[in-house]
Predict the 3D structure of the following.
Amino acid sequence: MKEMGQKLLDNAFIILAILLVIFASAKLVAHYNSDSEQTTRTDVKVLVYSKTGCSYCRLAEELLEKNNIPYEVVELTNNKDLIIKLVKQTGQTTVPYVFVNDEFIGGYQNLHALNESGGL
């Protein structure tokens, strides 16, 4: 009977140890995931010139948000002078105008391609 009681006690300690390992692992994974989700890129400066209601402008912003890349938006809807300046500067006539580290990269499609290639 004493042997059986000792076996039960040993098994209880093993089960407790396994549960502690599982719990510690789960906390570690949760901590890692929360840290990685909140990491914000600070080495990239992005400026998006957009117009209200533009779906490609919104897609560009969503892509940047998804990748935790901070960006600034300049609204072009009622700013014809700035639109003319951007067309002359870039040769592009559609929005969004996306600049990364002060370099014009194009519109949403270019931003998406840059992200897919790992260049963002």
Summary: The chain has a mean pLDDT of 84.
